[in-house]
């Protein structure tokens, strides 16, 4: 996989999403739970806005000094016996990882959930070279068995129900139990435990790298990331270059924001901070450690008005409040990064050509901006994207351009505007019945296909005001 | 106090009663209201669609129209929220920057103006009926006005108020979103309509005609008998016996 | 150990940031707010224990509070409740301080009790894999989230709290702090002093869990499926 999931058109994806009742029920109920969890946890802290402010300040400072902190991080990791590889592109990252795997003559690789490895298409590369790759996060494992892409960045298999999961386990792994979630999870535990113990290489992503000491922090509930980092002798961390904080103290603040914003927990069951190779005499942890720091288009975002999109800590709070996501689901975005943050990041990382509809897949209700724990102005960035699509990419429809030119004329010429307030009702008369338009012309059609449009008032406000000024209407209220 | 009415294009052309009620309320609390006739549209349809150059033409017109005003008050959180964005939009334009800041600083949504500037919470209104309230997204999240409308509604006599489930969810209007992404917009407004039905309210109240036109249009299409009213209509209602014809 | 492509990569980052590369002299600013310091500030140990106990309910973890003298008995009860046949515990000097050595010796007669032994190499992992119960002392305990912080090292393997089906954490009351803030400060101070930080710091809050199947909470996935905390009044 890469950032883009497939070749279906936007319209097709939207329709498939809307028609998928199970998915929509699942997403809707998940959003409800996530939202309540986040709101309860935020309320318990009492000063959530201060936390957001702090999170935003930490992320802003870190990104502004990213070169400095990445240098510090890489030196600390090297000091602790680790190798560091700076990869400008997905290809470079994959090639380095392939080289490590070849050198180790590794056959089996266990992974814990990582969006950046999805982004660079690592699994496909490793499988091409004949290695067995096992995703160990329960949701990711389900998707891997089913060859389905993730639809959410925290709970990737949100769109699947337990009956579908039971079927997948039965077909792919000979499972013959029920579809109770507990039994399914117990089966996954048993199956994956063997993989953890026999894997040659462990690969993880990174929630937060601590520059001052070289520690990589992973935030999980299942414990799979601990397995991946404790058991195989060779371990590789793949991190997007922005996933870094200056110190342990800053890591703590962002973890506190992440667990609350993502899943409504004070902390997840496991927050694991590991540093480099195992120390003298230790048995758990890798003897050979590699950190791969990935750019893959991120540096182009630095120094632009989109820089704060790199503050993202991948909590999915924006996704969990988004009404558009609720109705169309994650796959409709056709990106491994769905929802509002996906609509912002995807065109930046993968270009506008294939993703030009995404910035418009938002009513600009700003629920995302309000939910973001590090204060990324998501809806404003969507507007910026639209501006770029119109002005630089020139990908907006011709009819829209004409309409907007007309709008500018109308709204900057009081006489023209005034005339329209007089004529609107008459102009729409052919479509009006009982003061209602049910089948409007042109751009109104999208509206009236699903709802009524009211006929303009018999007398515009300004006409009424003029009459009133002339004393034709009574002012007195007493 | 001198107040200039910012009618908003939607209320000027389609829902002129909203303007009348706003004027009457303002006059009742002692404001001297004027209506600068050079005003047009705040520019939001173009701005939110990415047509910043076109939007700026509308915005400049608005800055000129209101240049002599002391306060600018409008019956829409969304349109007033747009005025509040002008300083950011014109920050690199020395010619217009000052006017943008000036207009943003003196502009208020009507309920915000009543509660936050005038300190009025009870307009002495009476309204009989079962009412629920949809807090519009731009009003609450962009303008940051959450309490003022509900504070005013709480003081209306005779009204039965029912909280709208998941009220903070967008209704699916989103300006050009409703016509550009009609399928998604439809699902959103269907859900909102469903939530309104759950309250069994006779009246859906809001402070933004865009959202109300969307929800109301959907409910009419579904044959639902819920009346959609702008908050000023309730706040300006004094008949004993209440209700709206 | 090697660092590849650092200069080209970081120079590119600096170029996009529109300034020369920063190699030194970057100071963290004073943040405008510090809400983390206010959480349970000035709380007594007893008050923090109460918060911890309450949070244990939320994370499906049993918790008992005992005196030092009662600890061996409480631990034995927990082991029996989990029907432990094979036990693995960290090689911790606190085993002696708290009189657990005698208990482990006594238990060793009827079940397999293994104290982590770095000399045995990978055998430790194999024992942990077949063990029913892993036992560790908490190094710093976070009241807010009911979290035990484990500084893993050669005598306290990561596997102990990870591979067995059940996990028992012994929490000396003196290790309890309000929240993760204090643990992070300790680690930050340690870095500033130039000390070698642990190769792994594990913040563990109860048993493992997942909500990946239809958002149902499943307690017990890859890590332990059940957990008990024993708070010891030291």
From TrEMBL, chain A:
Signal peptide: none annotated. [4Fe-4S] cluster 1 binds at residues 312, 315, 318, 372. [4Fe-4S] cluster 2 binds at residues 322, 365, 368. Residues 309-376 form the 4Fe-4S ferredoxin-type domain. GO terms for biological process: lactate metabolic process. Pfam families: Fer4_8 (PF13183), LUD_dom (PF02589), LutB_C (PF11870). Belongs to the LutB/YkgF family. It comes from Virgibacillus chiguensis. InterPro entries: 4Fe4S_Fe-S-bd (IPR017896), 4Fe4S_Fe_S_CS (IPR017900), FTHF_cligase-like_sf (IPR024185), Helical_ferredxn (IPR009051), LUD_dom (IPR003741), LutB (IPR022825), LutB/LldF (IPR004452), LutB_C (IPR024569). Is involved in L-lactate degradation and allows cells to grow with lactate as the sole carbon source. Has probably a role as an electron transporter during oxidation of L-lactate. Residues 70-294 form the LUD domain. One of its GO terms (molecular function) is 4 iron, 4 sulfur cluster binding. The lineage of its organism: Bacteria, Bacillati, Bacillota, Bacilli, Bacillales. The keyword Acetylation does not apply. This is Lactate utilization protein B. Keywords: 4Fe-4S, Electron transport, Iron, Iron-sulfur, Metal-binding, Repeat, Transport.
TrEMBL record, chain B:
InterPro entries: Cys_rich_dom, LutA. GO terms for molecular function: oxidoreductase activity. It holds the Pfam family CCG. It comes from the Bacteria. GO terms for biological process: lactate metabolic process. Residues 3-84, 131-215 form the Cysteine-rich domain. One of its GO terms (cellular component) is cytosol. Is involved in L-lactate degradation and allows cells to grow with lactate as the sole carbon source. Belongs to the LutA/YkgE family. This is Lactate utilization protein A. It comes from Virgibacillus chiguensis. The lineage of its organism: Bacteria, Bacillati, Bacillota, Bacilli, Bacillales.
From TrEMBL, chain C:
Gene3D superfamilies: NagB/RpiA/CoA transferase-like. GO terms for biological process: lactate metabolic process. Coiled coil: none annotated. InterPro entries: FTHF_cligase-like_sf (IPR024185), LUD_dom (IPR003741), LutC (IPR022823), NagB/RpiA_transferase-like (IPR037171). It comes from the Bacteria. Residues 52-232 form the LUD domain. HAMAP family: LutC (MF_02104). Is involved in L-lactate degradation and allows cells to grow with lactate as the sole carbon source. Belongs to the LutC/YkgG family. This is Lactate utilization protein C. The lineage of its organism: Bacteria, Bacillati, Bacillota, Bacilli, Bacillales.
């Amino acid at each position: 996989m890469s950032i883009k999931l497939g070749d279906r058109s936007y319209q097709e994806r939207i329709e498939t999403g809307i028609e998928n009742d199970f998915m929509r029920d699942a997403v809707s109920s998940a959003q409800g739970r996530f939202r309540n969890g986040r709101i309860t946890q935020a309320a318990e802290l009492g000063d959530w806005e201060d936390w957001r402010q702090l999170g935003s300040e930490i992320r802003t400072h870190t990104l502004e000094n990213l070169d400095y902190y990445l240098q510090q991080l890489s030196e600390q990791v090297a000091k602790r016996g680790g190798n560091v590889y700076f990869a400008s592109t997905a290809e470079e990252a994959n090639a380095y990882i392939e080289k490590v795997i070849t050198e180790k003559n590794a056959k089996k690789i266990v992974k814990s959930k990582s969006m950046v490895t999805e982004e660079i298409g690592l699994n496909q590369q490793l499988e091409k070279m004949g290695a067995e790759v096992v995703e160990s996060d329960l949701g990711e494992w389900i998707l891997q068995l089913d060859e389905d892409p993730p639809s959410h960045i925290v709970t990737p298999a949100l769109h699947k129900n337990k009956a579908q999961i039971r079927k997948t386990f039965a077909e792919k792994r000979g499972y013959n139990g029920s579809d109770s979630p507990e039994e399914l999870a117990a089966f996954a535990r048993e199956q994956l435990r063997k993989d953890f113990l026999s894997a040659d290489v462990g690969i993880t992503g990174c929630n937060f790298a601590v520059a001052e000491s070289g520690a990589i922090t992973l935030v999980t509930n299942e414990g799979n990331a601990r397995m991946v980092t404790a058991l195989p002798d060779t371990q590789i961390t793949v991190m997007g270059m922005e996933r870094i904080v200056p110190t342990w103290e800053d890591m703590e603040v962002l973890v506190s924001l992440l667990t609350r914003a993502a899943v409504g927990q004070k902390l997840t069951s496991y927050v694991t901070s590991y540093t480099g190779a195992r120390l003298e005499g230790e048995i758990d942890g890798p003897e050979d450690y590699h950190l791969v720091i990935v750019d893959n288009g991120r540096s182009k975002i630095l120094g632009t008005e989109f820089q704060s999109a790199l503050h993202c800590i991948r909590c999915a709070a924006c996704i969990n409040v988004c009404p558009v996501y609720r109705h169309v689901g994650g796959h409709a975005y056709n990106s491994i990064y769905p929802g509002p943050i996906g609509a912002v990041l995807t065109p930046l990382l993968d270009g506008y050509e294939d993703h030009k509809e995404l910035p418009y897949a938002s009513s600009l209700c700003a629920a995302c901006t309000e939910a973001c724990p590090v204060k990324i102005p998501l809806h404003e960035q969507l507007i910026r994207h639209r501006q770029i699509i119109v002005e630089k990419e020139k990908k907006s429809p011709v009819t829209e351009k004409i309409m907007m030119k007309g709008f500018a004329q109308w709204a900057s010429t009081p006489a023209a505007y005034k005339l329209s307030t007089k004529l609107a009702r008459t102009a729409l008369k052919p479509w009006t019945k009982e003061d209602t338009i049910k089948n409007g012309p042109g751009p109104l059609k999208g509206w009236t296909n699903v709802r009524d449009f009211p006929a303009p008032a018999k007398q515009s406000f300004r006409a009424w005001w003029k009459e009133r000024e002339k004393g034709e209407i009574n002012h007195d209220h007493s | 106090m001198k107040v200039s009415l910012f009618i908003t294009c939607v209320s000027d052309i389609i829902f002129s009663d909203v303007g009348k009620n706003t004027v009457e309320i303002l006059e009742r609390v002692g404001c001297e209201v004027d209506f600068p006739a050079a005003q047009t549209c705040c520019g939001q349809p173009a701005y939110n669609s990415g047509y910043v150059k076109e939007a700026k033409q509308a915005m400049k017109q608005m800055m000129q129209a209101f240049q002599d005003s002391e306060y600018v008050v409008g019956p829409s959180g969304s349109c007033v929220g747009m005025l509040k964005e002008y300083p950011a939009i014109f920050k690199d334009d020395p010619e217009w920057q000052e006017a943008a800041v000036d207009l943003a600083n003196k502009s208020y949504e009507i309920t915000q103006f009543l509660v936050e500037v005038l300190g009025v919470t009870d307009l002495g209104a009476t309204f009989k009926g079962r009412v629920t309230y949809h807090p519009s997204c731009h009003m609450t999240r962009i303008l940051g006005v959450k309490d003022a409308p509900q504070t005013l509604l709480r003081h209306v006599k005779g009204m039965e108020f029912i909280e709208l489930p998941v009220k903070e969810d967008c209704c699916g209007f989103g300006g050009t979103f409703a016509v550009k992404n009609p399928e998604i917009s439809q699902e959103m407004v269907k859900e909102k309509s469903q939530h309104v039905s759950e309250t069994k309210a006779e009246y859906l109240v809001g402070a933004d005609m865009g959202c109300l036109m969307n929800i109301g249009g959907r409910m009419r299409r579904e044959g639902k008998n819920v009346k959609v009213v702008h908050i000023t209509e309730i706040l300006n209602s004094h008949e004993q016996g209440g209700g709206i014809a | 150990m090697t660092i590849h492509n650092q200069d080209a990569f970081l120079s590119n980052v600096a170029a996009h940031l529109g300034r020369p590369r920063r190699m030194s002299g970057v100071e963290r600013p004073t943040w405008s707010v510090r809400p983390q310091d206010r959480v349970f500030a000035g709380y007594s140990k007893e008050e923090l224990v109460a918060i911890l106990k309450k949070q244990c309910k939320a994370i499906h973890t049993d918790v008992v509070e005992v005196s030092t003298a009662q600890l061996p008995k409480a631990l034995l009860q927990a082991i029996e409740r989990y029907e432990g046949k094979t036990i693995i515990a960290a090689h911790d000097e606190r085993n002696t301080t708290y009189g657990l050595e005698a208990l482990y010796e006594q238990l060793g007669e009827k079940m397999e009790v293994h104290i982590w032994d770095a000399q045995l190499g990978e055998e430790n992992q194999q024992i942990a894999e077949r063990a029913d119960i892993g036992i560790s002392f908490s190094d710093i305990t976070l009241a807010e989230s009911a979290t035990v912080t484990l500084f893993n090292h050669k005598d306290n393997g990561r596997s102990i709290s990870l591979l067995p089906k059940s996990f028992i954490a012994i929490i000396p009351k003196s290790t309890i702090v309000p929240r993760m803030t204090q643990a992070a400060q300790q680690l930050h101070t340690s870095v500033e002093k130039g000390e070698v930080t642990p190769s792994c710091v594990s913040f563990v809050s109860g048993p493992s869990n997942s909500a990946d199947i239809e958002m149902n909470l499943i307690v017990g996935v890859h890590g332990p499926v059940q957990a008990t905390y024993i708070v010891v009044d030291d």
